[in-house]
Amino acid sequence: KGINSLLARGVYDSAFPLHDVSITETLLHEEWANYGVMHKYQPVDLIRKYFGEQIGLYFAWLGVYTQLLIPPSVLGIIVFLYGIFTADANVPSQETCDDNLNITMCPLCDGVCDYWRLSTVCSLARASYLFDNGATVLFAIFMSLWAACFLEHWKRRQMCLKHTWDLTSLEDEEVEKYIQGYCMRERKESRLQEFTDIKATFHVVATRAVCVCVQIFVTFSAVFGVAVYRICMLSVWSMNPDPEAKDSVRMTVTTTGIILNMLVVLVLEEVYGAIAVWLTELELPKTKEEFEERLIFKSFFLKSMNAFAPIFYVAFFKGRFAGRPGDYVYVFGDYRMEECAPPGCLIELCIQLSMIMLGKQLIQNNVFEVLIPKLKKMYRTIQEEKGKKRAAENSEVKEEEKRPKQQFDKDFALEPFEGVSSEYMEMIIQYGFVSLFVASFPLAPAFALLNNVIEIRLDAAKFVTEIRRPDAVRCKDIGIWYNILCGISKFSVITNAFVISFTSEFVPRMIYQYMYSVNGTMNGYTEHSLSYFNVSDFPPGTAPTTTLITGVTMCRYKDYRDPPWEPDAYTFSKEYWSVLAAKLAFVIFFQVLNEY
Amino acid sequence: KGINSLLARGVYDSAFPLHDVSITETLLHEEWANYGVMHKYQPVDLIRKYFGEQIGLYFAWLGVYTQLLIPPSVLGIIVFLYGIFTADANVPSQETCDDNLNITMCPLCDGVCDYWRLSTVCSLARASYLFDNGATVLFAIFMSLWAACFLEHWKRRQMCLKHTWDLTSLEDEEVEKYIQGYCMRERKESRLQEFTDIKATFHVVATRAVCVCVQIFVTFSAVFGVAVYRICMLSVWSMNPDPEAKDSVRMTVTTTGIILNMLVVLVLEEVYGAIAVWLTELELPKTKEEFEERLIFKSFFLKSMNAFAPIFYVAFFKGRFAGRPGDYVYVFGDYRMEECAPPGCLIELCIQLSMIMLGKQLIQNNVFEVLIPKLKKMYRTIQEEKGKKRAAENSEVKEEEKRPKQQFDKDFALEPFEGVSSEYMEMIIQYGFVSLFVASFPLAPAFALLNNVIEIRLDAAKFVTEIRRPDAVRCKDIGIWYNILCGISKFSVITNAFVISFTSEFVPRMIYQYMYSVNGTMNGYTEHSLSYFNVSDFPPGTAPTTTLITGVTMCRYKDYRDPPWEPDAYTFSKEYWSVLAAKLAFVIFFQVLNEY
Question: What is the pTM of this model?
Fold first, then answer.
């Protein structure tokens, strides 16, 4: 109890160790909290000595992570450059841009939309190739290996730090305690007691389950809401008679949609953080460690779901349930489900991912980590000034005023330390962005690297100058975060496999080249990947009312379905099933490859 | 050095601790090495006290494994009984047996073989259903969970034993040594030295690589040789004019093939064991532990490959490359590749697995573990008698002869102890049989359980009465065997997924029921799963020369291919691709299900 109970009763305002200016202003500033030493290793031993093991381990981990981001960043940039340099030789995008092929596509909305030429989406097809080429697949495989290496490397580094910092004894005690507990439990057969415990905590579990369900529901409805916004805006704007507005509608709607998504993610993240704390307090965990662990687990679950839901939507759901011409799927009566842009969903995924990742980092770093603390400080200074003025009016404490400010006065003005969890959380979510969908955006590691190099020094400056010196906490490793990292790495293999085979067009292109192409080249792929639709099969009211393109009897759409002149018109064709089998085989191949 | 160098120079014949008859004949015999106590737990603490930690851990592990085999055994028998009781209601096998459907199948060999009625394989189709029904899939999922539980349970038990037997300190020393080594190595950068090491050991590595390649080649050629034997025998016997011989040919060839396979497995296992020892000695490992570990790894690799190769062949390769009527695949000029029996490969896999597993256990337990030691003992007794006679002739040591036999004389007559590796190996290969292909043979756990209950007491009797008391060896856990178990468990998820989707007919049946069936029942499945072949498309010389079935214009074969009257005759049909996609989707589903 001691000081804590005095603090709780308000006898003292606060209790904290003082900053040691002789270290912070010289050693730590010169060797660490300084943009000038960005290219150097961090003085981890010094950090540990000054802040304790917990914070030392955090910065050591951040250092290892940032350092190991260098190879994938370089390779990602090379992959991107490869895309740029080979874009001109890419047959599918050439064919898309070729006006002579004269491919008429089915309208994108009912009634008001016209037929359109495939060559109008030429630039998007070119852009799509930058992220959807063979090198991306190799890069995704590399990234899975990289994740395994990263975890292994960190395990070794941690073991070494444990040895150097003499944390092994800490571990032994814990293990010994656990084993004793387990062996005794086995003998005592305390199941009956556990059962009553279960009954007692039932209402807590129920509350938690309901809360989590509500939050999952909120996240998904937010994603769905933005999708509905896009669907509605598209059909409303399409009715605009101005042709210029019509051309830009898709771009505008996509951009505003992404910005909306990002804002929702940022707002919900703060809300979920608060809810996770509340939920964990409900559970009344017995020790501080237990509290931390549960809180981390809950907030990680909610925050990551929140951050990744819009991206998962674009990667795996958008455009999958749109139906086909003549048999579209409608939501809310007469709004058609949204489709991806014609060159594939990958480019949309890529834009979405880059925007959310960059936006989140920029806004969080600048607003939450720099601006808000500054504002808080300013507010406090103003408050203090007021206090001083009042004091000056009363002219009672003049004597003390004149004394130079003591270190504890200075430190009291700083923000209290609130644990390293939020720092870890930010980095882990970033790790998720880097690994989960790297197959769609090879530049992600480079952006992460750039962010982290700055982040380390920003955090360093924060710890040294803006928050009170924390109590040194001993801990033997980074704990649950390591398990979360392992989980993300494992999961990323699956998501990347699915992104490559279902979001990108890698597999259909390969299948065309080696199974259907007459001369083994990609020529004719665009033609092959589009199905025919007889415009006379449009249900009443869905055919374009006015059209600039005359004499259209057949329009084309992106799918593998039998043409209207076959007996099973508009059912999935043999190509569809063979491509699907190849996609699934690729997923298995990719998974097995990464496991062994 | 000491006693070891004296032993090496032949000063002493042998050095070993003596058996303590007061313990072996009372406590150990009553509570352990006795079939009467089969239903009780083993006295593990006593075993450890008498034989040391290594052997104690082996029997503790064997006990846990045997105990945990009980639930899958019971469930496996239930699944099998479920198959028996629902066999009559099974539509596909009813349809196969229905003479009225009058399905004429294409001949099984060129020229001499006749067309045949599908209803002639009725009994095989019924037997096939016993192992290929919906319950088997659930059982395979259960077994994957079981494997995870088993490993987890053993980890806990081992931790507990470690604590009770005070083996934790042993571990700490090792870990500490390793970390020190690692951290120092990191600083010293001893890569150059490692490089020279690599050069020095290059010829050893080369020898090893060549040897392992040769052995892999031998194993595969053995499997392939047996396949060739079957192919040749089938075509030779088919020419036999006696109709009775013709009917039994398939059964005879399959049975002899399996027996051949089993003999090859048993012989090669002994050979590979010797080769593994020789190879490991070539490598000159520095410590005894290193030697053991390398030897185990090598012999496990070779022996398991040897034991599982014929089963893998039947599960995934047999009948996959046989071609189709009119376009068969031939080996060695004019022998057709072998096909599976018409109700599917699963029944053959099931027979193969049960025969190899049972045969291996019976022969190894009876011949290698009981008969050969007995023979050796007999041989030694005869030798001794001879020695005595000679001694009696010389009548020099008469005095000593009359003295009662000392304990060291008795123990010297026993077999020397040769490590627990071979015991582990046997059990681990059995674990492989139980887990890898459990989807095809749900009775495997029951057979394993039966074997192990006997095995424990057999081993116990061996340790107590037939071999010299071993030196007590301290070790902290079961070492590399745990990793091997983990590897097998992981691998078994994949093999079971592939067995269910590619060897069994579960997925095609489901697809038929939910996609193609007109009324949602299985009626018509047999018809749907057979393709048409126009007999006028037989290449010259391959059509049956004489036929008992008249008026055949179309014969049927098991595959999903377009019929002769469609434009793409005999190419894979839409059904083929959709079933393939479903199979692959099932593999992914099964894998993901088991991972989380």
Answer: 0.81
